[in-house]
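Budget justification note: compute hours in this period were largely spent on complex prediction jobs such as the one shown. Inputs:
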Amino acid sequence: MADSDLLLEERESGPARLRAGFWRENPILVQALGMCPVLAVSNTGINALTMSLATGSVLLASAIVISTLRGIIPQQVRLACFVLVIATFVTLTDMLIEAFALELHRALGAFLPLIVVNCMILSRIEIMASRQPVSVAAMDAVGMGAGFMLGLVTLGSLRELLGRGTLFGNQIMPDSFEPWQVLQLPGGGFFTLAALVIGYTLLDRRLKRWREAPA
Amino acid sequence: MTDDNGRSGIGSVLRIQGVLVSIALVAGLAIAAVHEWTRPMVMAQRGGLLGDAALQVMPGATTYRIYVRGADGSVRLMGDGDETPELFIGLDEQGRAVGAAIVGSGMGYADVIQLVFGLDASGERLTGMRVVASRETPGLGSVIVDDHDWVATFERIHLRFDEDRELRNLRVRSNARHEDGEVDAISGATVSVVSVTRIINQSLAEWLPTLREQFDELAGGGRG
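Corresponding output:
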């Protein structure tokens, strides 16, 4: 699709996309996308951080490449092309993490290759990167990646703090604290996510009211 | 993105295929290049992990000699050109051989499982097992790494031999009798547990005859 075709579909503003992905359209807390890795690897802060960095970099790289190629990708095979590009970047990320951080690679296990089917990435590519210029697509990817990281790292830190008494591996809670081990189990991921979404909604409402209040 | 240039039929199909093949070609080249670049680093780290795991499965060992099998089937010390260690002979502080650790790999549920398991100096009892690389399903097959109680049972498993001193395969069973060459089954991880057992059986079949014949020699003549 050439840039002139954007008359049909409005060109979005990059900075607006950046903010939207981080808060208003947060992929985890609002859109509830990519829940499988979110619940599976959010048991510790460091796992959550690495997973969101890996997902974010795959999203950014794929968005740039697909936005650049959007003029030559045929409509009929666009999904095949998207998945091909995403899978390539996932494989590259997987190999790089294995080479430079083997322990993390072992902790993330099968979820790293599964970034290929993360619906957040595919949805951003389909909605943004395949229709918008590179700059907007890249800003959108950075915003969504940051939003994904915000949700995932908050979730991971909470589960680690309450489920193990540590934060990024450092002992935080006093020795008398009895860890809530249920939070380390998959079920605990659902509970923590629910609490986080409630917290997000309350905070978002309060922020809106505060913004709308007369000065 | 649409092919609206008036081309239809064969031209359109060729263009679609051309784009797909070009993207796939570039993707394949990029993956091959990064794979070549990172492979030595990955293998070096895996080698370090294997060495650490080997010490854990050979109680009493403080150091080891590393062997590989050459193309002609003979066993020789690992050299610079060899990528993966295949056999560790564990030595204690006095340099006496305390046992061996064998590296094995094979297909698991999701991907290749690589593991190392220890064998005592008499070659009749396992002394431990560690999975070094695997991609089993988190929460299910991953117990072969995470379930420390199950992993610890490998320190107690005795090998079984028939009347002719031929090795009989380890079997997977619930309520396993470890002294009778049995491995505990885990519900939800059947394929992973069977894979681990199969890998150990294959590696034992490959290495036990060699160890029986050449253990003293491989240990440098200092059997403890």
